[in-house]
Write a structure and sequence with these properties.
Its EC number is 2.6.1.42. This protein has seven helices and 21 strands. The protein is α+β, with helices and mostly antiparallel strands. Helix 2 crosses helix 3 (147-160).
Length: 414
């Protein structure tokens, strides 16, 4: 019996025209094969004749609503990347033997679009997302792609869906580029076929309600990532194993997991965010610390931006809201949990916060550890924010929303 071809419905005025994807097995080697790459000039657009109502910003949660359209491309070893299509959002038919189902050959990115103060939809440092997505694709031996061509298509999709961009504080249009392997068969080999899609979701704050501090449970029994593993890449397979421990932490009254690693149980990520610690120094300066990119830590775009902002802080390039003469020592190094406990006990622990695309920046107010129910308490200012977290978050959002001119805020233009 011949295998069932993967079919992707293309909706036009309510009709559905299946597009079959060939399943012939070919060994794909990007070093020896020259196949068509993503070509934005071949984009076709089929607009949805029935547009959904845009919900009020106060009703938005994170990642539960989709916009009217999506971007879709497919790859085969015979013809390379297909002509890109922007079409109505809709379900997709996947072969049960597809490698994405059987072997988790799935990658994705998290980006956001904001409506700038100038009335233009904008993306935040999208080149970093595209570069990371390309690294993730290579990690899973998925087909290579032209990241600038994909970015051009993402901008076009955002422009088409710009009515969905919420302008309320803390809201944005979340962008989820995804690539998954569609080669059929049980052999553990690279996927010679793939689908690349981009969907959009108008979203409110990642943590519902007023922005507030969250609590963490320091997990030393389960390891999220390890050197030489996949923690430094944005792969779907990294996330599923974290769900059980996070559920268990919630039962103990904590919002998220503080992942630990190594014989010294040093800090890893905060849930799905990068971790930052601020330490008081004897001379009045502050040390801003984050774990190094050792292969266990995802190189977050927000992490990159926080490092850039804090390293540049000075009288000549201050972060608004911080004293211009405040000296910040910004370092990337391991912080064992025992060291964090000592800093807390000696009064040197000033702030702990997590950063990421979805949440931007969230302060931490307590960290549980050990089987005795011990906790590290972190004092915060107004709404639980310390001065570094508050100033950095406000500066990031001002740049993202183009209230502060910066090359990181990239307009989506025709």
């Amino acid at each position: 019996m011949a295998p069932v071809a993967l079919e992707t419905p293309v909706h036009t005025n309510g009709a559905s025209t299946p597009v079959s994807i060939s399943k012939k097995a070919h060994a794909f080697d990007p070093a020896t094969q020259q196949l068509p790459n993503i070509d934005p000039s071949k984009l076709t657009i089929k607009l949805n004749p029935e547009l959904a109502a845009v919900p009020a910003p106060e009703k938005l949660t994170f990642g539960t609503i989709h916009t009217d359209h999506m971007l879709l491309l497919t790859f085969s070893p015979e013809s390379g990347w297909s002509a890109p299509s922007i079409q109505p959002y809709g379900p997709m038919s996947i072969d049960p033997m597809a490698s994405c189902i059987q072997y988790a050959t799935n990658i994705f990115e998290g980006m956001k679009a904001y409506m700038g103060a100038d009335g233009k939809p904008r993306l935040f440092r999208p080149d970093l997302n595209m570069a990371r997505m390309k690294r993730s694709a290579d990690k899973l031996a998925l087909p290579p792609f032209d990241e600038q061509a994909l970015l051009k298509l993402i901008k076009k999709l955002v422009l088409i869906e710009k009515r969905w961009i919420p302008t309320a504080p803390g809201c944005s249009l979340y962008i989820r580029p995804t690539m998954f392997g569609t080669r059929t068969g049980f052999g553990v080999t690279p996927s010679t076929h793939a689908t690349l899609l981009v969907i959009l979701s108008p979203s409110g704050p990642y943590f519902p309600g007023v922005v507030r501090p969250i609590s963490l449970y320091a997990e030393s029994r389960v390891r999220r990532a390890w050197p030489g593993g996949t923690g430094g890449f944005k792969l779907a397979l990294n996330y599923a194993p974290t769900l059980g421990p996070t559920r268990d932490a919630a039962k103990m009254g904590y919002d998220q997991i503080l992942w630990l690693f190594g014989e010294d149980d040093h800090l890893g990520e905060v849930g799905q965010m990068n971790a930052f610690v601020v330490l008081k120094q004897d001379d009045g300066s502050l040390e801003v610390v984050t774990p190094p990119l050792d292969g266990t830590i995802l190189p977050g775009v927000t992490r990159h931006s926080v490092l850039d902002l804090t390293r540049a802080h000075s009288a000549e390039s201050p972060i608004p809201g911080l004293p211009t003469d405040l000296v910040l020592h910004v370092v990337e190094r391991d912080i064992p949990i025992a060291e964090l406990i000592k800093y807390s006990e000696t009064g040197k622990l000033a702030e702990v916060f997590g950063v990421g695309t979805a949440a931007v920046l969230v302060p931490i107010n307590r960290i549980g550890y050990g089987e005795e129910g011990k906790e590290i308490k972190i004092e915060g200012g107004a709404n639980g924010f310390g001065p570094i977290a508050k100033a950095v978050r406000e500066e990031l959002m001002a740049i993202q929303e183009a209230r502060r001119p910066n090359a990181w805020s990239v307009p989506c233009e025709e």
